[in-house]
Amino acid sequence: MKQEWLEGHRARKRFGQNFLHDRHWIERIARAIDPKPGDALVEIGPGQAALTREVIAMAGHETAVEIDRDLAAFLRTQFSEDELSLIEADALALDWQTVLPGRRLRILGNLPYNISSPLLFALTTVADRVIDQHFMLQREVVDRMTAEPGSKTYGRLSVMLQYRYVMHKLFDVPPGAFVPAPKVVSSIVRMQPRPVEALESVDSHYFSLVVAAAFQQRRKTLRNAVSKFLDEADIESVGINPGARAEALDVSAFVRLANAAALKAKTNAL
C-alpha cells in the first residue's frame, strides 16, 4: 500500500475539506470504529486517505464515497480494487439504497461541516440496514445531536436523530490534527440505529413539521409554537403541558404531539 501525499492539492472550501494528518488521532479514531474483515465499511469523504489506510489495514477492504475528482484519481493510485471500491459521487445526492444493497453497513467519515445536518438526515433512509455510524463533526453539532431534554443545546437535530439512533459522543479532536486546521474543535460520535420494532409509531411528516415548529422560536410555549397544528386542548389530551417549552419535552412527547397533529388533520379533512 503506497504512503504518498497528493502534492499540490489544496483543500477545497466548497467541499468543506480539512484533511486529518496526525497519527495519534488517526489511530485513536480507527480503534473506536474497530473495523474487521468482512465488515461492509463505507467511508464518506476519504480525502487524502489518512483514515482510509488505517481502516483498510485493519479490515482489508472498504467502499468510499468521494466527490472530488482529483482525490478520487489519487485514491486509485494508492489502493487496489481489492482494497478500495470507489464511488465518485456527492454523498448528499447519492441514493443510499444503491450502496452495497443487501449488506449491513458500517458508515464512517469526517463529514464536511457545511452539509453535516442534511447528510445525517439523508442517511436515515438506510438506517434499517446500518450496524453503526462513526462520524467526525464540529463539536457544536455533536453536542446538539447528543443533548438531553432541558439543556440549551437540545433542539430539532437532537429530537429527529435520537428518535432513530442511540448516540454517544466519544471524544474531541483538536484543530491541529488537520490540514488546514479548522477554526473549531471536532468530535467523534457513534450512532447506532434503534431496532425498527423498538421504534414508536409516528407520522413522519407531522413529526418533522411539529418538531421544527416547536423549536423555531425556543422561548415560545407549545401552545403558541405549534398552534398551527394543535390547540391547547389537543396538547393536554396527550399528557403534555401547553405552557411547557420545546426543550423540556423528550422524544416520546414529540411523537405523541405529531400523531395528534396527524389525526387532527385527517379528521378535519373528512
From TrEMBL:
It is an enzyme of class 2 (transferase). InterPro entries: KsgA/Erm, rRNA_Ade_diMease-like_C, rRNA_Ade_methylase_Trfase_N, rRNA_adenine_dimethylase, SAM-dependent_MTases_sf. It catalyses: adenosine(1518)/adenosine(1519) in 16S rRNA + 4 S-adenosyl-L-methionine = N(6)-dimethyladenosine(1518)/N(6)-dimethyladenosine(1519) in 16S rRNA + 4 S-adenosyl-L-homocysteine + 4 H(+). It is found in: Cytoplasm. Keywords: Cytoplasm, Methyltransferase, RNA-binding, rRNA processing, S-adenosyl-L-methionine, Transferase. Its EC number is 2.1.1.182. Its main location: cytoplasm. SMART domains: rADc. One of its GO terms (molecular function) is 16S rRNA (adenine(1518)-N(6)/adenine(1519)-N(6))-dimethyltransferase activity. It comes from the Bacteria. S-adenosyl-L-methionine binds at N18, L20, G45, E66, D90, N110. Residues 25-195 form the Ribosomal RNA adenine methylase transferase N-terminal domain. It holds the Pfam family RrnaAD. Specifically dimethylates two adjacent adenosines (A1518 and A1519) in the loop of a conserved hairpin near the 3'-end of 16S rRNA in the 30S particle. May play a critical role in biogenesis of 30S subunits. NCBIfam families: ksgA. Belongs to the class I-like SAM-binding methyltransferase superfamily. rRNA adenine N(6)-methyltransferase family. RsmA subfamily. This is Ribosomal RNA small subunit methyltransferase A.
